[in-house]
Amino acid sequence: xxxxxxxxxxxxxxxxxxxxxxxxxxxxxxxxxxxxxxxxxxxxxxxxxxxxxxxxxxxxxxxxxxxxxxxxxxxxxxxxxxxxxxxxxxxxxxxxxxxxxxxxxxxxxxxxxxxxxxxxxxxxxxxxxxxxxxxxxxxxxxxxxxxxxxxxxxxxxxx
Length: 159
Description:
Blueprint: H1 2-40, H2 44-54, H3 56-60, H4 66-73, H5 77-89, E1 93-97, E2 105-109, H6 111-136, H7 142-150
Antiparallel strand pairs: 1-2
Helix pairs in contact: 1-6, 2-6, 4-5, 6-7
């Protein structure tokens, strides 16, 4: 019977940890969404996709396929395709066939998209810092914020 109680306690601890992580994520994403929409007419997903695509040469020295892009922005492949289409219609992205494999489609940030991204980067970074600062003041979220702050800094190429 003690084994069941320990297992239940561990399960509840994991569940509470997950709920706390989800709460921190929701607070941060909400703050980013409001700031990016207000200042740049961009969603968090749009910003993330532009950011990942702007760095694709740094990631692997080549262009990302849609499946790789989906994993990088943590969206389903269909949601990523819809997002790419929306940004393409806004003139921020362009798609083209892979020259080596006509089945592959690559996506690239246009100069207009790069300009929007560069303008939005400081809004994103400032909003993220403010959201983390505010979360650090809440006792239930402070340990997670501290854990994030303790993560090693990755070189720019690894981002």
